[in-house]
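pinned: reference chain
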Amino acid sequence: IDKVGAGISICLQIARFLGLFTASYTLMVAVWAATENMRKNSRLKKWSSKGNFTLVLGLNQRSFDLTKDLLRNKSENVVIVYPDKNNKYLSELKHYSQVITVQGNLSSSSLLRNIGAQNALKVFIMGDTDSENIRAIQELDILDNSGSSDPNRFVHLEDENKRRFLYNSLSENGQNRTNIFNIYENTVRRLLLYYPVDRFYLNPDTKNLHVVILG
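pinned: its structure tokens
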């Protein structure tokens, strides 16, 4: 009887220990999840005060590839603003400790101010539409009061007419700080550097060259 009683006592102690461990672990996970926004905001303020982060507006294939390139530098911190709640790239970005994702409107002046957009080392505006990107860079132009003229904003626009419109709508300082580009045109130029047209046979009567990008 004593041996049976001793065995029950040991099992009871183990059960109590496991129960305490499970409850403690569950509580820790719950507290960690509950304070996620608080920790995110704390890191954002720290990065903003030191001005050591890159801001990416928009989350799609283009900006995702850009972010992975930026993260090759282990000391790079990246803040990404995205509008759609169920973005398919979020799950992979969670694996990077140097990345903070913020859901919201890309052209929201209050959101841009709260994340310290004016203090970012570089800003890449790569939303899904030209109109979205134009509104975002115009808000940044209004928000910026640093007086710096160093070019550190890069905005992707596909429509050439909209590029002219955007440039003319910015302040003089904003014009100096903004690089307007088309990622597809840049891709074609890069391809032509590696594969110049004179490597291939061309009909002497050919006047125009057409490049088609698949994917």
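why pinned: The chain has a mean pLDDT of 83. The longest strand covers residues 78-82.
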